[in-house]
Amino acid sequence: MTGRLRAVVLLSGGLDSSTALALTQGTGFECYALSFDYGQRHRRELADAAHVAKALGAARHEIVAFDLTRFGGSALTADIAVPRDRPPEATAHGIPVTYVPARNTIFLSFALAWAETLGSSDIYIGVNSLDHSGYPDCRPEYIEAFERMANLATKAAVEDKQRLTIHTPLIRMTKAEIVETAISREVPLDLTWSCYEPAPDGAACGRCDSCLLRRRGFTEAGFLDPLRYA
User: Fold this and answer.
1) How far apart are CA 177 and CA 179, in angstroms?
2) pLDDT tens, position by position, for the chain (230 residues)?
3) N or C terminus of the chain with fewer C-beta within 10 Å?
4) C-alpha torsion sign, points 225, 202, 130, 62
5) Rounded to an integer, what is the distance from CA 169 to the centroid of its chain?
6) 229 lies in some domain
7) What letter would DSSP give residue 103?
8) Are 76 and 45 in contact (CB under 8 A)?
9) 3-state secondary structure of 167
10) pTM for this one?
């Protein structure tokens, strides 16, 4: 036991979640990183999440496995083409086929369970409401609603032993601001992964929505992206 307050941090291995982990560490929390193998086609991110968790000094890193390919409904979990080369105006409107039904609700439910067992009142998630590709479960109103629900759902909250807070330190940042924050917090950006559909040689495609958002963020921030692209 360290005596430090604990926080559960959702960690995909991407730029945003890795930056969220670094910010959480900077607030003095003992961080418990949580990743998910849900059948995503870009499983490369799990190895990178493990590397990031170690590099940033997480107290513990868990990868929980379940199979959302059984339901499909997303280009990340079914035989649906990942969109490529979409212009910024296209990514700013509508919900793309890379949306995974209920993904953040599932992720936050696991985080809630772990937080309660850890005696933690704090969950950190790197969602972003500006450059979020239109995903409805990245909006502030969704996070606020889940937090209200969570404080009705646990024994610890009902017994007034815990009042859960879901922290979203990146939610109103642009991708360029996230890049700048990551660099200032010494996030190992070469270990992070954003691509939805890696090339056969392991390089990022550079053309999916996630790659395009990342690349634009680095360009606007004036920094070189260390990720290797096809």
Assistant:
1) 5
2) 457 899 999 999 999 999 999 999 999 999 999 999 999 988 899 999 999 999 999 999 999 999 999 999 999 999 999 999 998 877 777 889 999 999 999 999 999 999 999 999 999 999 998 765 678 999 999 999 999 999 999 998 889 888 999 999 999 999 999 999 999 999 999 999 999 999 999 999 999 999 999 999 999 999 999 999 99
3) N
4) negative
5) 12
6) no
7) H
8) no
9) strand
10) 0.95
Into how many domains does the chain fold?
Answer: 1
For 44, half-sphere exposure in the C-beta direction (CA atoms, 13 angstrom radius) is: 18
C-alpha angle 136-79-105 in degrees, rounded to nearest 5: 30
Tokens linked to 228: 């290797």
User: 3-class DSSP state for residue 35?
Assistant: strand
Q: Can you give the length of the chain in residues?
A: 230
Query: β-strand 122-124 against 165-167: which pairing, if any?
Result: parallel
Q: How far apart are CA 18 and CA 36, in angstroms?
A: 14
Q: For 23, what's the count of Cα atoms within 13 Å in the CB-facing half-sphere?
A: 23
Q: Which helix (H) or strand (E) holds 122?
A: strand 122-124
Domain of 33: which CATH number?
Answer: 3.40.50.620
